[in-house]
Every structure is written in C-alpha cells, then in structure tokens.
Amino acid sequence: MRAVVVNAFGGPEVVEVVETARPEPAAGEVRIKVAAATLNPVDAGVRSGLFGGGDGPVGLGWDVAGTVESADAAGVWNVGDEVVALAPGLMRPLGAHAEYVVVDTGAVAPAPAGVDAVRAATLPLNALTAAQALDLLDLEEGRTLLVTGAAGAVGGFAVQLAAHRGIAVTGLAREDDEELVRSLGAASFTTVEALEGEGGGALPRADAVLDAAVLGERALAWVRDGGAYAGVIPQAHPAPVRGVRTAAVAVTADGSRLAELVRLVEEGVLTLRVAETFALADAAKAHARLAEGGVRGRLVLVP
Question: Most exposed among 70, 114, 129, 191, judged by the fewest C-beta atoms under 10 Å?
C-alpha cells in the first residue's frame, strides 16, 4: 500500500509517499480502508522534528474516515462499516495518511450520516481536542469563555460546543473572521488587530480561556482571578497566577466520546469545514499549503 512518511526532518519537501506492507490488526484492533485523512498542525510538527527523532521512517496522520476492512474479534465492528477514528501517535512507522490504517477498536465511531468522508475526516482530532479542553475548564451554563483562535479548527469546534452548553462565548480571531466566528455561536467577538500592542488590557476578563491560538501567558491575562485556562499543546500551559488554574489537553482516542460528537454533527450543532483536498500522492503540496498559513477549515488527503 501507499503511505506518507518522512525519513528526515525538515520542510514540506521531506514528505514522501512510499510503498509499504499493509498493516495487520492485532487483538483489540481493526483495519480501516482510508477514504480521507486530515492534515493537521501536529503532522507539520512531526515532519519538522518538533517532537524529536526516531529510528527509520516516521508515519504521519491522526484523523481518518473510511470503511472497516477487517472485523474485530469482539464483533463491535463489521467489514464495510463506515467509520471515523482517531489514530494518535507522534513517532510511529505508519499513520493515517495511508491507504490503510490500524486503530484500537475503542477509538472508532460510526461516520456521521449524510456526510461525505472528506468532511467526516476533519472531526476526530480537532473536535475531541476541543471537547476534552472544555472538560478541563469544567464551566457551567451561563459562565463566560474566551476562545482564542476561534476561526481555526479546534477553536471553531470549541465555540460551537461551548455555545451549545449555554456558555457565553467571546471569539478572538482576525477581523476578517468575525462573520464566521459569530455564525459558529460566539455571543461577542474581539479582533486580534485591536489587541496588538495593548498587552491584553482591552479585553474584559472571562471565567475561562480556551487558548486554541497558543498565546500562553498573554491569554492568561484575560482570565478572571480564580478562573481557568486550558491550552491545546500538552505540558505547554503557563504557570498559575491569581488563583487561575491552568492545564493543557493531551488528546486521547475515545470512540464513545467521538460518537457523541458525530451525533452533534448530525444534529447540525457542529460544522465540518474543508479548505482544500489533495491526492495522497500530493501530500508534500498539502504540507506546503499548510505552511503558508491562513487556512480556514482543514486540508484533507484522499488516497
């Protein structure tokens, strides 16, 4: 089968598509024939060597939508089932950017009904990250939340999930993104441009901040005393101040939680956004497009 790997760390030019053996599922795993797989910033981080080195080729890709190609022994999934899944892992020989991927049975959920595989593939990593970050904040209905990077994939899901729970959301993004962010459910909006050079003082403090833009200490300044901060890069959150508890989500595969998010897609609560699709053979071009920035929605690879 074909798979996307890197044999050396660097820019988009190091991305290769190679022929390799089809992975075999072990006990408690299923093999999925990949219909679409999303390119995420974590893939660019692995490609560039941000997470360290490894021996041999390193596979890329965490998100997958496709069909079950080998049933699991427990009979939870059958051949031909249309599914989505999170296939996490930083330094491994194969990822989801391939024609087939093996994942834990418990990481799989039914694909959202009436949604094509390209859009469905954008759900697992980003929506689970947003949901698990909101879990860390533990906000009740009526509380206030600032979401940085509110126009991005994780930030957009966070806005929608929080608004659905009755939380008053302020979205922070670029001026051109106001219409989008408000359409996702933000009750108010603040532009990045308006805050530049102001040291964060222009924003009223919220009960919590979900820092999808990875602003760190600057975003912490916008949390009220005794509030909460959640980052999206493991162990990269700022130290607590003013009684503000800080944490960062380390996203975990959770098929049951993913199934809940699928239902929210089917109910119209969550919006799946695709910026552009690329053939698997053009994975390096997709990485180059991601490196340019300004992507709204996700880039998706199609085998």
Answer: 114
- Inter-residue contact 178 to 189 (CB < 8 Å): yes
Structurally, the chain folds into a number of domains equal to 2
Residue 196: per-residue pLDDT: 63
The CA distance from 148 to 195, in Å, is 12
Statement: the pTM of the whole predicted model exceeds 0.70 = yes
* Residue in the block written with tokens 């959640």: 230
Contacts of residue 108, defined as CB under 8 A and 6 or more positions apart, other chains included, come to: 30, 32, 68, 76, 77, 83, 84, 85, 255, 258
Q: What is the pLDDT of residues 234-278, one digit of tens each?
A: 888 888 999 999 999 999 999 999 999 999 999 999 999 999 999
- Which residues, in sequence order, are CB contacts of 89 under 8 Å at separation 6+? 62, 95
Q: Do both 105 and 154 map to the same domain?
A: no
CB 146 within 8 A of CB 206: yes
Residue-wise over 180-206: b if at least 16 C-beta within 10 A, else e? bbbebbbeebbbbeebeeeeeeebebb
- Position 183 in a domain: yes
Select from 141, 136, 101, 138 the least CA-distant residue to 121.
101
User: For residue 250, how many other CB atoms are within 10 A of its CB?
Assistant: 12
Residue span of the structural domain in which 196 resides: 126-248
Q: Which residues partner with 126 through β-bridges? A: none
